[in-house]
Amino acid sequence: MTCELCAGLTENILWQSEMCRVVRVNDPFQPGFCRVIWRAHVKEMTDLDAALRGELMRVVFAVEAAVRQCFVPDKVNLASFGNVVPHLHWHVIPRWQDDRHFPEPIWGKVQRENSPERIQVADARLAAIIAELIKQGETDHE
Questions:
Q1: CA 127 remoteness from chain centre
Q2: Can you tell me the distance from the alpha carbon of 118 to that of 81, in angstroms, rounded to the nearest whole number?
Q3: What tens digit of pLDDT does each residue of 115-140 get?
Q4: H helices of 41-109, where?
Q5: Which pLDDT does position 1 carry in this prediction?
Q6: Euclidean distance between CA atoms 106 and 37, whole angstroms
Q7: What is the value of pTM for the model shown?
Q8: 111 inside domain
Q9: What domain range includes position 82?
Q10: Residue 108 in domain
Q11: Pick from 130, 139, 136: which is nearest to 65 by CA?
Q12: What is the pLDDT, as a whole number, of residue 85?
């Protein structure tokens, strides 16, 4: 069975390195929904050594900061499940109190059919901010 995260055939890649990539999820109800995907096929965070876990989380936190800056959500959900696709990845999901699922997770029961229009941010702008924040994080560790 092919792992869809290893294949990455239909992804909208915003940033990538040798260890991971950041993709924007095409979800009209959750603009700014991103995924940080570890390149190697591992299932759990503890499959990585401490240094690699730190690097991965530095990217996750940079993506969260970029999503907050661009989309101004009420909250950001960070999630790492892997129940359906057992490949290490993190979801970075902006949330608003009036989004269609709130306060449920976005995979939960729909609470309202309509959500207000959200800020539209081009992939190139979001990608540039993510890259800038990741680079800032690299210099913070030197």
A1: 12
A2: 26
A3: 788 989 999 999 999 999 999 987 66
A4: 50-71
A5: 60
A6: 19
A7: 0.93
A8: no
A9: 4-102+116-140
A10: no
A11: 130
A12: 85
CA–CA separation, 16 vs 39, rounded Å?
A: 9
3-state secondary structure of 113: coil
CATH code, domain with 132: 3.30.428.10
Residue-wise pLDDT for 33-92, tens only, equals: 999 999 999 999 999 999 999 999 999 999 999 999 999 999 999 999 988 888 999 999
Residue entry with tokens 């490949």: 87
Query: CA of 64: how far to CAs of 26, 96, 112, 113, 114, in Å?
Result: 17, 15, 25, 26, 25
Residue 36 Cα distances to 2, 8, 13, angstroms = 19, 12, 10
Q: What is the mean pLDDT of residues 104-109?
A: 92
